Amino acid sequence: MIPPNAWHSIGYSKEFGVGQLVSVRLLGRSIVVYRTGEGELVGIEDRCSHRFAPLSRGRCEGSSIRCMYHGLLFDRDGQCIEIPGQRSIPPRARLRTYPIAEQGGWVFAWGADDVAADHSSLPDFLSLDDKDFVFGTGKIDYEAAAEQVNANLLDFTHAAYVHPSSFGSSEESWGQARCSIKSVENGLSIHWWVPQSLSYDTPGVQMDAYVDNYLTYDYTVPGHLSMWARSYPAGTAQRLDFGAPDIQPLVTEYSGQSVCATGDRTSRYFYVWGVASSLPDAQGVIADRLAMASRAFEEDRIMIEAQQRVIDETPGDIPMIPNAADKAITLFERLMMKTSHQRQAGRKADVTKAAAIL
């Protein structure tokens, strides 16, 4: 279950220009998002109240939006404020609005209309404006539920079998990998040592063909990954007895990834890769990294969509049989359920309070 009462990634700041109408999908609904002249982002359901034409085919007028089918004008609060040729406006000519937040070059929508948006729970991605890094961004659509994409990102052991030709992963390196998991606010903190990993060509950095990679990432509800990847000389993990390193890495890279449930069986996956801006030809390095990541995530898409088709045709009384590597998946699923239950508890409390008043 994907809880609506959370911040869901819907795009990057650079995709939302002033006056530009952008239609996005979230939890089976279409939302039109636009930036006002003051720079603020507004989200309204992408449906005119009159004949249900999509407002994303309309026109932005200041902080309002006009439907270009019959000309109705809606303000930023979703209220119809003008109907051409008609003086009276039905009170019901009002559309649902969505809280939109913008942080560090990412754009998020709050999916619940019955729970107040909690800005303290916005994901803590490295800002795309950070001058110490050069970033590349991408996104890919899946014909698969967001839950399956989340599970993929919570268990990196699939890399040995899905990504040998893209990330250069091997069964040997992942066979030696060690993982630690602990709970953090609204998610999990996961640390991986992956010994004897294939090193990536990095101008200005001398590395052997194989390195030990130390991957640390937080994975928060409803599907945000913020990861640091640090490479060390081969043998470092063993020397440190697979403990947290306190020595300077050969190279440090960053990745922010996020899964948006666009529907019950569809999702959109956003990914960011960052390398140090101080590297020689940093722009060339990030182009290579992004191309590699894009190939890998296409490999994921093919596997996960095939998995989804099997899930859909498998009788509901046949369960998946978990193994030890599924610990993070199990813990995260519990967190998602807890978040959903918090929403339901809040709704029940509101009903009880209203009944007491009556």
Automatic annotation (TrEMBL):
InterPro entries cross-referenced by the UniProt entry: Cholesterol_7-desaturase, Rieske_2Fe-2S, Rieske_2Fe-2S_sf, VanA_C_cat
Organism for this UniProt entry: Sphingobium quisquiliarum P25
Domain Rieske residue range list: 7-109
Keyword Ribosomal protein among UniProt keywords: no
Alphabetical list of Gene3D superfamilies matching this protein: Naphthalene 1,2-dioxygenase Alpha Subunit, Chain A, domain 1, Rieske [2Fe-2S] iron-sulphur domain
The keyword Transferase is annotated on this UniProt entry: no
Key words of the record: 2Fe-2S, Iron, Iron-sulfur, Metal-binding, Oxidoreductase
Signal peptide, first to last residue: none
Any GO MF annotation of the entry: 2 iron, 2 sulfur cluster binding
Protein name as it appears in the record: Rieske domain-containing protein
